């Protein structure tokens, strides 16, 4: 049985066993107030929308688009492949792993650093290493997005750094988030609060997730949360794609153009609401 089919079967059986009040959108209480410019909550199994606000407005989505980069990379190339870092990739800003020119790394290390700490140099190196060039990788991203039904999206780079003509929507990002969650390699990474990687020179480095909903020592920690990806640029504002599971049922929340003051609280409230959990 494929990973996708297994995920769907287990989640569907678990959902069927839940009380109707927790499973049926129609019996949920009113959703919490959301101040983000765009938002959507979907059922991860069916893809059905449970809540949305300006879900089809096109806007930059910052590093949340690394979920698509990860999906394209994992589906196209072995993550055991060793790549050599190019000089141009070491100059990518702002948040970075500080790759060194000539450093040799398995693609899996780049993938982990890109998803856990949102390292932009790793995203660009990963894309180029998979497709041969950043431009070709962006073409791959757009083709994969089209197959996912992301009809209001266009991607120019692997990192989500500002670029002319690059945009998506909350609804489209929920589609790629759902696909990423079905991928066992990506799912195993985005649910981690921390991970230790090994650099090309043998040194180890512990990385900590940028998703505060996953950090046990953070006031925003949400026990049911199991992913996925943060993002921020001046143009995009604070963005978050989050997922949560309770009694086998999984939901995905996409929040775009929010602020660091409220995004964790509002995302957590929507996840709890959609799972039929108390929002106190």
Please list the strands of the largest sheet in the order they lie side by side. 2-1-9-8-7
CATH fold-level assignment: Beta-lactamase
CA radius of gyration: 18 Å
Low-confidence stretches: 8-25
* Percent in helix: 25-40%
Mean pLDDT: 91
Characterize the largest beta sheet: strand count, sense, and whether it forms a barrel.
5 strands, antiparallel
CATH 4th-level superfamily: DD-peptidase/beta-lactamase superfamily
Indicate the proportion of strand residues: 15-25%
**How many helical elements?**
10
Secondary-structure map:
Elements: H1 3-16, H2 20-23, E1 38-43, E2 49-53, H3 66-76, E3 82-84, H4 87-90, E4 104-106, H5 107-116, H6 120-131, H7 134-147, H8 170-182, H9 184-190, E5 194-198, E6 204-208, E7 225-233, E8 237-246, E9 249-258, H10 263-274
Antiparallel strand pairs: 1-2, 1-9, 3-4, 5-6, 7-8, 8-9
Helix pairs in contact: 3-6, 3-8, 5-6, 6-7
Description:
This protein has 280 residues and is of the alpha+beta class. It has one domain (3-8, 30-274): DD-peptidase/beta-lactamase superfamily (Beta-lactamase). 36% of the residues lie in helices and 20% in strands. The protein contains ten helices and nine strands. It has helices at 3-16, 20-23, 66-76, 87-90, 107-116, 120-131, 134-147, 170-182, 184-190, 263-274, and strands at 38-43, 49-53, 82-84, 104-106, 194-198, 204-208, 225-233, 237-246, 249-258. The strands form three sheets. The protein has a five-stranded antiparallel beta sheet with strand order 2-1-9-8-7, sandwiched between helices. The longest helix has 14 residues, at 3-16. It is globular and about 55 Å long. Mean pLDDT is 91; it is low at 8-25.
